[in-house]
Each structure stands twice: as structure tokens, then as C-alpha cells.
Amino acid sequence: MSGKVRQRASANTADSATVSVNERILKECHTLYTDPDTGLVNIAKNLGLTLLAPRKKITVLLIGNHSAGKSSFINWYVEEHVQRTGVAIETQGFTFVTSGKKRESLTGNATLHLYPHFEPLRDIEGVTDYLTTEISTSKQKKFSLVTFVDTPGLVDGDMKYPFDVNRAILWLGDMADLIFVFFDPIGQALCKRTLNLVENLSVKHADRMRFYLSKADEAGHESDRQRVMMQIVQELCKRPGLNRTGFDMPTIYIPNASGKPSRCVNQIEEVCKDVEKSINQTIQNTLNNLEKDCEQIAEIVDRKLDEDDAASSHNFSARGKGCLLGLVGFILPLLLLINLLASNLGKDILVSTLGRSGAETLQLYMAPIKGMWDVIPKAYHYHTWGFFLFISLVLLIVAKLKSRLKPTLNRKQKKALMEKRDYVQNMIKTKKQSLYQEYLQQSVADHDL
Ligand SMILES: Nc1nc2c(ncn2[C@@H]2O[C@H](COP(=O)(O)OP(=O)(O)O)[C@@H](O)[C@H]2O)c(=O)[nH]1
Ligand SMILES: [Mg+2]
Asked: What are the TM regions of this chain, as residue ranges (predicted)?
């Protein structure tokens, strides 16, 4: 019994040990947004604000000529033969290579289900049939935090793609955190399609793009390699959109790919570092955005509460004005009516209904009105009645209009709003602080080692 418990406990620690701090931070941030009850996405939606949940992994798009070594690089990174490689045109469509609980291949529709933010790809006719996802259980390097997007090899000329490959790659470039461009020394490194795409992508995403001279072990001697590199850089610089100083192009190759040892310098670790840097940047951005989003929510709540206060005081004065106007509109004809009754009913009837003192008081108070009424010639009495009835009607209508109220929040709604504000300002911000602390601590620890 206790053995079983111990076994389970150790399995748990093993499990949590394989989940890196960074992975957990991104997952927790994701949950803070997507939780159905307390998630920021839903809180914001109820306030009329659209928030996007952060992604749990970065996306790395690989482009390059056919046979430049893209698929081989993915296999090397993952340390598993996930993608088919070879000189024949192997990769026809787009493949998302990602880590998961079990080895599996998914079709296009399942892929878009897994990556809802890639859903607009459907608009590019024919792409869905050429989308696949390869899920691998590998946790090598930083693979648990990366999704690679392998693309069809780019070639010029007659090659017919079953969909608009340029449009699809440009669109994927918008979604990717990193865009790796592989140039190989033997193939059509300078194929027009690749150069055009690189130029177009760098209009928006120059900062996300990295260039590599791949399969560098096949470039011959050092001098040959230099020449190839010069050629590629020259070709790139000819493009107006790419003419920048200092093209950085590490030379990389898959160790032992050619089967014979190579003396060429391999900078493939640079690629891994670029991936790591992007992951770190993503974590920092995600945490910063978390705080910004909380602030935005708190601001909206404050604004709503202010608006509600303004509406309440508006309603208070509207009610006051409405009452006053209504009262005048109501009293005016009433006074005329009383005056009419008082002067037309005989004194006896008044005394018998109101009592002697009552009748006298009435006469006393009605005297000014009676005085004014008597000034008006008898022939105009009906007109005067009409006039005053009209005035009081207008007053009553204005009163009705003036007392129109603005909607206000009830106590429960107000409380709910304030709770939301406190939740994002206190709970989530504290959580963000502690996640940041964990993130920083691990890099401090890394340096200490
Ligand atoms: N010598 C050497 N061969 C490589 C390297 N990377 C890939 N290859 C070979 O080049 C061919 C094409 O590679 P592949 O990954 O399919 O290219 P892709 O079309 O860009 O996906 C395959 O036969 C690989 O074995 C490398 O770094 N060095
Ligand atoms: Mg390939």
C-alpha cells in the first residue's frame, strides 16, 4: 500500500520535473486567460473587450529551397525521425511538428482544430488537404515549447503546387515567432521564389528572420564555403527590400549527416540559442501583456463605475425637475377649477361642505386668483381656460421628458464589477509577479551553474 503511494509520488515528481519552469509559466498564463469562470478572456468579453489568450509555445517557420535540409533540421532538433527527408521532393504541404503526450499524425482539419489561430489558412484554397501535424513525445532541447512548421521545398519553374504556396507562407510568416531561412550550397540556393518570399517576408518581419547556410559540410573547403556565402549575400543585397548591412549567416550542418567527419565549423548551436532567445522573449512579453490586460480591464471597470455615478446623479436631478414641472402643470388647472367652483357655487353650499372657517380660508387664499380672473373680460374666459390647459399640458409633457432616466447598475452588478477589478488588480497581478520571479530566478540559477 505505502509502496504504491510512494511509487505514485515519485511518478508525480518525475512528471513535474520534466515540465520546465518556462513551460509551466506559459501554461499558467494560458489558463489565467482561458479558464471558463475566472479567465481574463471571458471577463474582458463581458466588458466588451476582446483579449487573445497567449500561446503556450512559440512557432518557428522554416523555409528554403527544396532539399535545403529543413526537415532534417527538425528531426535533428527533435532527436526523432519525425519528418521524411531526401533529395526527392518529400515535403509537399505544411507540417506542424509539435510535442505531445503520444506519437500521432493528424490530418488538416484536426490540425486546424488543434491550432484555432491558424484557422484563416482555410481561406487559401486547397491548403487544408496539405496540412498535417506530427505529434512527437520528444522533450529534447526546448522542443516542448516549440512548434516547427515545415514547408514545401521552394523551386522555380514548372513545379505546380496544389495551392498558392507564396500566399500561404506569407500568412504563416505573420503568425510565426521566428522565420528560419535555409540556404544550401549545392541546391538552388538562389531560386527566385525563395528570394522573392524572403524579400516579401522581411518587409514586415525582418526582426524575426534568421538566415542560415545549411548543409555547410557539403560546401567543400573553407574557401568554397566563403564563396558560396558571398554569392548568397550578394544576391540578397541586390534586393531593395533586403539591402541591409551585416548579413549574419551562421553555417550549420547536421552532425554526421554525410557519414564522414567534417572539419567545417558547425554553428548549429546558434539555431538552438535563437530558439531559446525567442522563448525567453515570449515569456517576458506574455507576462508583460498579462499585466497590461489586467490594467485595461481595471480601467474599463473604473470607467463603468464612473459612468454609473454620473447616470445616478443625472437621474436624481431629472427626477427633481420632472416632479417640479409636473406639479406646476397639475396645480395650474386645479387652481382655476377651484376658483370656478368657489365663485360659481353659492356661499351656502361652500359653508355646508367646508364649514364656516373652511369657506373663509378658501376665499382668502383664492382672492388673488379671483382678482386676476375678474380682470379678464367674461367673453375671453373660455380662451383663458384653453390657454392654461394647453400650458399645463405642455408642462406635463416636458416633465415626462425631463424625468427620463438613464439605466444604472444595481447593487449586485456594481459589486460584481468591483470584484472583477480587485481580482485582476490583486490576484492576477500578484500571480504575475511571482511567475516573473520564478522566471528570473531560473536564469540567475543558470548563470550560477
Ligand atoms: N551532408 C549533409 N546532408 C544533409 C544535411 N541536412 C540534410 N541533408 C540531406 O539533404 C537531403 C535533403 O534534406 P531534407 O531535410 O529532406 O531537405 P528539405 O527538402 O529542405 O526538407 C537529405 O538527403 C538529407 O539527408 C546536412 O546538414 N549535411
Ligand atoms: Mg522537407
From this structure: 322-342, 382-401
